[in-house]
Amino acid sequence: MKASISRLPLEIEFKKKGIILLAIIILLFSALVLRLMYMQVLQGSHYEGLSKDNRIRILSIKAPRGKILDRDGIVLADNRPAYNLIVIPKDISDLNVVSSRVSEILEIDHQEVEKKIKAGLGRPFEPVCVGRDISFDQVAKVEAEIFSLPGVSIEAATERDYVYKDLACHALGYLGEISKKELRLHKGGDYAACDLIGKNGIELECESILRGKKGKRVIQVDASGRKQKVLDEVYPVPGKDTRLTIDKDLQATAKNALGDKVGAIVAIVPATGDVLAMVSRPGFDPNMFLSPIAPEMWDQIIHNPLHPLENRALRGQYPPGSLFKIIVALDGLSKGAITPEEKVFCPGYFSLGKRKFKCWKTSGHGEVDFVKAIRESCDVYFYTLGKLLGIDELSTYALNLGLGKPTGIGLPEEVSGLIPTKAWKVARFNKPWQGGETLITAIGQGFVLVTPLQVAKVMSAVVNGGHIYTPKILVSQSSTLEGEIDISEDHLSIIREALREVVEGPHGTGRGIRDPMFSIGGKTGTAQVARGFTSKLHDESDIPYKYRDHAWFFGFSPVKNSEILVVAVVEHGGHGGSIAAPIVMDVIKKYFFLKGAMNEQIVKDSR
Amino acid sequence: MSKLSKIVDNIDWRVITIVFFIIFIGLLCLYSATNVLSLIIFWKQVIWVGLGVFVMLVAFIIDYRTLMRMAWPIYVITIILLVLVLCIGNEIAGARRWFSIGTLGFQPSEVAKGMVIILIAFYGAKKKHIDGYGLRDLLLPFVVLLVPTLLILAQPDLGTAGIIVLIAICMFFVIGIKKSAFVTTLFIMIGLLPVAWLSLKDYQQARILSFLDPNRDPLGTGYHAIQSKIAVGSGGLLGKGFLHGTQTQLMFLPEHHTDFIFSVVAEEWGFIGSAVVISLYLLLITRIVSVGIKAKDRFGAILCFGIAIYFTLHVFMNIAMAIGLAPVVGVPLPFISYGGSFMLVNMACIGIVLSVSWRRFFS
C-alpha cells in the first residue's frame, strides 16, 4: 500500500533537494549559534556592563553648606529651604513646548531656557537646573501643569540666605553659579555645572570647609528614567559652620555710622588682632548673586564708579596723610634722631633749596616739641624729622612694621599699599628720588599708600606695647605675632600720651570728640588728593567732590590697655577731625555699651 | 489493531510535541515580557493558542489536496483582504495593517504568506520540467505574486513583503530553475536594487543605515538594535533568570513581546536557553523537510518544503535582527512572538504538514 513504482523518481528527486535544503538551514542556524556564543559567552561581561550603565544612575546629593556666624554665634549666612525647577532632557517630548511654557512661568527668556536644556542633551539623564529658587506661586503653577510638561519637575533644595543683607557683605563675600573657568580649576573635585561656589570674602576663602562633601544615591531606573529602587546611598557630609571675629551689632553700628559716605571702617582688638567690624561703603546685597543675575543689573554693579563690590578695608589704597607722622615719630625716637624734649621752630613753612614747603597752619606753630607736634599735627616738625632720617631709613622702618605688603588677614584679593623707596622710584619712573619727596612722604603724601586694615594692624602694635599681630577674622585662627616694633617701652608710652593729647589736649586736632566718660587716644589725617585743592586751605564746599581730601581717623580706648581700636576713612570727606573722628567715636561707644560697661542712655546723653 | 489506533499511530506526534514545547517557552517569555504592565497580552495569546489548535485540527482533517483546487480562490480572497485593509484597516503609527475585530486584530498580510506557499506549490505540482524552469515559466508566477507584494509594501510593511519575496525565491530554487534563468534574475535584481532603495520610505532607509552603523542615531532608529544586543549579550551563558532580565523588566527594549521577543529568551535564559530554542526550531524544520521528502505527491512535498522555508526565514531573520546580524525589519518569531494572525497561520501550516505526513499512509 505504501510505495508505488510511479512515486520512485519523485522520492529520489525530493530526497536530494530536501537534504540540500536542510544543509543550508543547518548552516544558517549554526551562524546564529556561533554569533550568540560570541556575544553571550565571550563578550558577556562587556554587555553586562552596558546593561548596568543602562539602568543605574548615580545622583549626587548636595551637602548643606556651613553657616557663617558672628563671634557670638549669631547667624550671618544661613541656609533656607528653596525650590528649583529642574528638567531631565531625556524625558522631554517637545523641547519647544516645554521651554516656552517654562519661560512663561518663570518670566525669563525663552532662548535662555532652550539653551540650558540643549546644553544638557549630551547627558540626557542628568537634571538641568532651569529655575533656581523659584517663588511659591511659580511652584504652584508648575505643579498644576506637571502632567502636560513631561521632563519638568520641582526639586526641594536649600538656598543661601544672607540674613542681614548688605551688613558685612564684603567680609562674607557671596556665592554664585560656578563658571567654566572655575569648573576647570576644580576638575576632579566635587563640582558640577550649576553648583554654587564662593566668589569672594569668607565664602571663597573658606570654600573647602563650608562646602562639605556631596553624597550620592545609586538608583535603578527603567527605560523612561523613572526610579525603580535605591541600590546604594552615601549621605553627604554637611559643611562646617564658620565663626567670624566680627561682632554683628558693632558691625551694624559701624555701617550706620558711615551711612551714605564712601569709605571704610575697621574695628580691631589691639591685643589679639581680632577684627570686630569691617565695613566698606557702598555695599551690596549678596543674596542678589544667588540666582542668575540680569545682565543690566550686573552692568550697573560693574560700571558703578564707586565699585560697590570692592572691599575698601583691604583693597582701598589711600595716602595716609598725617597718620603717617606716627610712623615717622616712631622711627625718629627709636633711632635717636630726636628726643621728646627737643623743640623745632615752625614759622609756617619749611625751606628746602629754593622751594618752600608749607605747614597746614600757615601762620606757624611756633616752638614745637614732640607731643605738640603730634597733638597739633605740625607739618614742619615732621619735614624736619623726615629730612633727618632720609627716605631709605623711613621706608625700611615702615616696611618692617608691615606696611607695603598685605596684612595676611586671609581674605581674597588683599592689596599691598605702597612704601616708596629710591629703587622703586627709579624702576617706576626712571627718575632719581628728589629731596622734596622725602618731605612730603614724611607727612603721608606723595607716593605712599596704605589700606585701612594696614593702619589698624600697625596702630594696634603702637597702642598694645609694640606687638605686631596679623589681623584675623576667624575665631578658629589663633593670634599670630609677626614681630615687635623696634622701639623702647618708654618711647611707646610717650607716643600713646601724645595720641591721648590729640583728643584731650588743648588745640588737639581730634578734640571734637572729647568725652569725659572715655579715655580715648587717636590721630587725625587729612589726605590731600589733588595739589592746590586741599581743604586745609579752602572752604570744602568750593572744591569739586573728586578733588576733596580723604578724611582719616584712628582712635583707641582706653589709652592704657586698649580694648578696641577703630580706623575710619571717608573718601573725599574733608577734615579727618570733623568727618572721620565722630564715626570712630560712635563705634567705640557702641563697643563699651555692648560690653555692658555702660548703658545706652549714658551713651546717648554723652553725645 | 483497530482502525482508530492506526489513525492515531500515524499522526506525526513528534511535530506536535516540538510545536507545543516551543509554544510553552513562548508563553513563558511573553509572561516575562509583559507582566510589568498587564497580563492582557499574555491571556490574549493563550486564547490565540487555543484558536490555533482548532485551526491546526481543521487543516489536518481536510485533505491537503483540496488546497490545489482552492489555490486560486484563496489567492483572490487574500487580494481582496489586502485591498480592504488599505481602505478600512486600522491606522497605527502611519501603517494600515490590521482589521480589528473587537479587541483582537487580524492581519491579512500574514495570510498572504500562507497563500504564497500554497500557490507556488500548486504551480510547481502542475507544471513539471525535468531541467527546471526557464524565464518564460517564471513570468506568470512573478506577475501573480507581484500584486500581493505591492499591496503589502503599500501598507507599508517592508518585513512581510521581504519575507514573501524570499519565500518565493527559495521555493523556486527548490523546485528547480535553469541556470540561464537564475543568472538573468540575479542581474535584474541587482539592477533593481537602487530603484528599491529610492522607493523606500525615509524611516526604512534610516533603519537599514542604522543596521550598518547602530551608533549613527543611538536614541532613534538605532535604539532597538543597540538595546537588543545589550539584552542578548548581558544574558551570558546561563542568563539572568526568569523575570530577572533587567533590559526586559525595566522596558529598555521596546516591542519585546513581538519582534524582539528573542532578546527576552537570550537575556533571561542565556546562551543555553537560546541554543535550546534554536535547536527546537531546527528539529521541527528537519521533521517538516523529512515529511516533504516522504510525501506521496509532488504538491505535498513542495508544500512541506515551502513551510520549512517559511519557518526558517522567520526564525533566522528574527534572531539575526535581535543579535545585530540583520537590519530591524518587523519579522516575528513563530509560536513565540505575540500575534494572533501569525499564530493561526503557523498552526495552519503545522496542520497541513500533519495532513501531508498522515495521508502518505492512505491512498
Q: Would you summarize the structure shown here?
A:
Chain A has 607 residues and is α+β, with helices and mostly antiparallel strands. In chain B, 71% of the residues lie in helices and 4% in strands.
What topology does this entry show?
The complex is a heterodimer of chains A (607) and B (363).
Chain A: H1 8-42, H2 44-55, E1 56-61, E2 68-69, E3 75-87, H3 95-106, H4 110-119, E4 128-131, H5 136-144, E5 152-162, H6 169-172, E6 175-177, H7 180-185, E7 196-198, H8 201-205, H9 207-211, E8 215-221, E9 227-234, E10 242-243, H10 248-258, E11 263-268, E12 275-281, H11 295-302, H12 312-315, H13 324-334, E13 344-346, E14 349-352, E15 355-358, E16 366-368, H14 370-375, H15 379-389, H16 391-401, H17 422-429, H18 435-442, H19 452-463, E17 467-469, E18 481-484, H20 489-504, E19 521-527, E20 550-557, E21 564-570, H21 576-595, H22 600-605
Parallel strand pairs in A: 2-10
Antiparallel strand pairs in A: 1-8, 2-3, 3-4, 3-5, 6-7, 8-9, 11-12, 11-21, 13-16, 14-15, 17-18, 19-20, 20-21
Chain B: H1 3-9, H2 13-34, H3 40-61, H4 66-88, E1 90-92, E2 95-101, E3 104-106, H5 108-126, H6 135-153, H7 158-175, H8 179-199, H9 202-212, H10 223-234, H11 246-249, H12 261-294, H13 298-322, H14 340-359
Antiparallel strand pairs in B: 1-2, 2-3
Helix pairs in contact in B: 2-3, 2-12, 3-14, 4-5, 4-6, 5-6, 5-7, 5-13, 5-14, 6-7, 7-13, 10-12, 12-13, 13-14
Cα(first) to Cα(last) distance of chain B is 19 Å
What series of H and E elements makes up the topology of chain B? HHHHEEEHHHHHHHHHH
Low-confidence stretches of chain A: 1-7, 601-607
Q: Main sheet of chain B, how many strands, which sense, barrel?
A: 3 strands, antiparallel
**Secondary-structure content class of chain B:** mainly alpha
| Main sheet: strand order of chain B | 1-2-3
Rounded to an integer in angstroms, the radius of gyration calculated over CA atoms of chain B is: 21 Å
Structural class of chain A: alpha+beta
Largest interface: A-B, 41 and 53 residues
- Poorly predicted runs of chain B: none
Mean pLDDT of chain B: 86
Number of helices of chain B: 14
How many separate helices of chain A? 22
- Overall radius of gyration of chain A: 36 Å
Largest sheet of chain A: 5 strands, mixed
Strand portion of chain B: under 5%
Q: How many E strands of chain A?
A: 21
Shape of chain B: globular
The proportion of residues in beta strands of chain A is 15-25%
